[in-house]
Amino acid sequence: MAKESKSLSFEEALESLEGIIESMESGEIALADLVAKFEEGSKLLKTCQSQLKEAEIKIEKLNIKTGELEDFEDALGV
């Protein structure tokens, strides 16, 4: 991975994570490489989760400012 995962946008991190998952699922990776891919994927997953949480907090703050106290998950229909 050229960039550190923390400096990637959500979309870049997700795309990299999807590529890692596809390569791991192919079954054509040596065990040592598989472990390295797993570590890289774990970092990318944390980056995505962190960025999603930040977005959730921003949306909740915006809802409070506008007088809408709707829960984030309710707004998404989750």
SSE order and pairing:
Elements: H1 10-25, H2 31-65, H3 72-76
Helix pairs in contact: 1-2
Question: How many separate domains make up the residues?
Answer: 1
Along the chain, the helix and strand elements come as: HHH
Total DSSP helices = 3
Low-confidence spans? none
| Strand segment tally | 0
Oligomeric state as shown: single chain
Briefly note the structural class of the backbone.
mainly alpha
Q: How large is the radius of gyration?
A: 17 Å
- Specify the overall morphology: elongated
Overall residue-averaged pLDDT value? 84
Helix % is: over 70%
Account of the protein in words:
The structure is a single chain. Helix content is 72%, strand content 0%. The protein is mainly alpha-helical. It has one domain. The longest helix is centred in the middle third of the chain and has 35 residues, at 31-65. 10% of the residues are buried.
Features:
single chain, 78 residues, mainly alpha, 3 helices
In brief:
The chain is mainly alpha-helical and 78 residues long. It has helices at 10-25, 31-65, 72-76. The protein has one domain (8-76).
